[in-house]
């Protein structure tokens, strides 16, 4: 009786006939639309081979990077994907791992999301319906009961991708790819061709470890062999390219050559590299080579069939049907386990943002910080808090760094004026001098100026907004005079003297000859070592300030004015460990609209990288509801919604 895998292989011609014009057209359009941005192809099991073959085809359309990942790799990634196309490959599209990857693509703000599946009713497709950046690509199969190795699903994707790539590359001058594939497929499926391949593998023993050495252009075929041999429990497999094998893995053959078989997949391009290695291996090492004429996508597609035929041949040698190998009672429970899906839904944008900072910091904390639990705690604290003050950074928060010489947006001014009108005390803690006050006096109603507390020069000078510090400057500190003299003695590390005030020196980072060297020299300076000065960094400058200068002075001024402690919402953009908002935001009510630090209980972004700067501030201000005179609360649900609707 013909085994299941052989039956599935015999029927591949019918699936080739089903490569639909509409499917390949949508794939061709998607390949063309994404050619200018990097991509990530995601798949597991046999679909990982589909994803690998996609990357092979995409290289003929785009010169941008194409990464290959499993769903778990993808879910645990933390990079922003707003300029990356994500391609998700799945046979039936219902397993929890691919659904976790769908959730992650949404939460990570992918520029494009594509799902390629042989199931038009796939849950992965339904999850994405209605999203502007989503495209679903259905590839028909002739046999939906596809066997353990999903043979028809794999070949349907391969045939569709080759046809679509032809359209994307050649347009109206495309060849009839399905007919070409059909011709080559039928030749490979002839009984004589399969018998010949089986004979070439006669030396493989049931107990052998397969060393699968490959031309990287044939990675998809190699992944197919590796995955299938493991899934059918035929052989342990070690897959690598020819030269990586030469960097140490050859020891396996030296120690275990009697129980190893080398299978090489090569093209004319890489044949000499393999020959050079093969000639130097001991004659006792059993080996076989599958070589294609070139590394083109059509030959690469046919090598996918060769890979399946290799699996068929090795299964026949052991009397095992790779299409129905038999599995343990634990197979279904672990396949359907939803742990990755649960984790993916918890890794919302703010959590990913904080995890990234946590990884960068690499603090060895005992006990380890549970960032997800910390996020829940911070949200609940913000949800239940009543604030009687709002303290904000200026550059990067109220205005963008690029537009710091322009006034704040009218929408932000309107919201600030609304809160002031509700009796809320407003504080601005900025690294700037008087220019920030001049901007705000021009746009806020004059009768509200005294209600705004300005902390100029990182809190070195605190005044109400109605006071023009250009007209009433503080005296020059002797310590700051010593800073001027130190800078004058080190002219080689700066391209300019910086902006010098009585309590601070601000230096644009692009005016520093060597930033790392400058910071090293500054830290060694006598005034730094004595603790009389410190420095902080914003997105565009380094501020050298007096030790007593801190943005927290704004809060101290407010408390003194009210004769009690204030409960302030604190907002800034430079919350990382060297940022000038690090101290201000190091509190459970500290919110960053850009960079965050590793600390779990403060300095969170509510939007991750989905909303930044003034846009994020505006969302927070709009969610700030005055509940009685001088007191406001945050509408947390509105903020979460604002972050979610900005994705993708």
UniProtKB/TrEMBL annotation:
GO terms for molecular function: carbohydrate derivative binding. One of its GO terms (biological process) is carbohydrate derivative metabolic process. SUPFAM superfamilies: HAD-like, SIS domain. It comes from the Bacteria. This is SIS domain-containing protein. It comes from Devosia pacifica.
């Amino acid at each position: 009786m013909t085994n299941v895998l052989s039956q599935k292989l015999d029927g591949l011609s019918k699936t080739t006939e089903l490569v639909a014009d509409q499917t390949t057209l949508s794939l061709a359009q998607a390949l063309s639309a994404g050619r200018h941005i990097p991509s990530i192809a995601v798949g597991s099991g046999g679909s990982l081979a589909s994803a690998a073959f996609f990357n092979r085809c995409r290289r003929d359309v785009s010169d941008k990077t194409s990464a290959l990942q499993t769903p778990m790799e993808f879910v645990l990634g933390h990079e922003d994907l707003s300029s990356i196309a994500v391609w998700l490959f799945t046979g039936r599209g219902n397993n929890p791992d691919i659904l976790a990857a769908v959730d992650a693509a949404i939460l990570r703000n992918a520029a494009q999301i594509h799902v390629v599946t042989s199931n038009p009713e796939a849950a992965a497709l339904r999850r994405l319906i209605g999203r502007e950046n989503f495209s679903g690509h259905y590839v028909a199969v002739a046999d939906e009961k596809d066997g353990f190795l999903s043979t028809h699903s794999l070949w349907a994707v391969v045939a569709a991708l080759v046809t679509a790539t032809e359209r994307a590359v050649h347009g109206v001058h495309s060849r009839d790819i399905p007919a070409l594939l059909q011709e080559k497929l039928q030749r490979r499926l002839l009984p004589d061709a399969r018998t010949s391949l089986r004979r070439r593998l006669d030396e493989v023993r049931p107990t052998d470890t397969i060393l699968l050495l490959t031309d990287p252009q044939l990675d998809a075929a190699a992944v197919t062999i590796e995955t299938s041999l493991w899934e059918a429990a035929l052989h342990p497999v070690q897959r690598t390219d020819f030269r990586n094998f030469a960097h140490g893995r050859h020891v396996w053959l030296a120690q275990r050559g009697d129980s190893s078989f080398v299978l090489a997949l090569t093209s004319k391009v890489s044949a000499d590299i393999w020959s050079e290695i093969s000639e130097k291996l001991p004659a006792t090492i059993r080996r076989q080579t599958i070589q294609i004429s070139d590394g083109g996508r059509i030959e690469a597609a046919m090598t996918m069939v060769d890979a399946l035929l290799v699996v068929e041949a090795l299964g026949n040698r052991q009397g095992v049907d790779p299409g129905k190998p038999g599995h343990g009672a634990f197979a279904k429970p672990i396949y359907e386990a939803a742990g990755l899906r649960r984790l993916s839904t918890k890794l919302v944008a703010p959590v990913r943002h904080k995890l990234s900072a946590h990884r960068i910091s690499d603090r060895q904390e005992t006990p380890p910080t549970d960032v997800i639990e910390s996020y829940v705690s911070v949200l609940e604290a913000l949800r239940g808090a009543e604030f009687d003050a709002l303290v904000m950074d200026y550059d990067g928060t109220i205005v963008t760094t690029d537009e710091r010489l322009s006034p704040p947006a009218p929408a932000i001014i309107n919201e600030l004026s609304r809160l002031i009108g509700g009796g809320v005390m407003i504080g601005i803690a900025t690294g700037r001098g008087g220019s920030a006050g001049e901007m705000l006096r021009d746009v806020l109603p004059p009768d509200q100026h005294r209600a705004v507390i300005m902390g100029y020069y990182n809190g070195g000078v605190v005044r109400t907004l109605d006071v023009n510090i250009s007209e009433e400057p503080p005296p020059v500190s002797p310590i700051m005079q010593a800073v001027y003299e130190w800078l004058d003695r080190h002219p080689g590390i700066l391209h300019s003297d910086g902006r010098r005030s009585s309590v601070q020196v601000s230096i644009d980072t692009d005016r520093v000859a060597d930033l790392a060297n400058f910071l090293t020299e500054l830290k060694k300076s006598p005034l730094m070592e004595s603790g009389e000065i410190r420095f902080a960094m914003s997105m565009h400058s380094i501020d050298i300030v007096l030790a007593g200068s801190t943005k927290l002075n704004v809060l101290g001024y407010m408390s003194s004015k009210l004769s009690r402690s204030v409960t302030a919402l604190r907002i800034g953009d430079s919350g990382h460990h060297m940022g000038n908002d690090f101290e201000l935001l190091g509190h459970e009510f500290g919110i960053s609209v850009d960079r965050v630090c590793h600390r779990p209980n403060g300095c969170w972004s509510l939007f991750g990288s989905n909303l930044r700067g003034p846009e994020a501030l505006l969302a927070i201000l709009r969610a700030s509801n005055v509940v009685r005179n001088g007191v406001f609360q945050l509408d947390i649900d509105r903020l979460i919604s604002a972050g979610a609707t900005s994705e993708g």
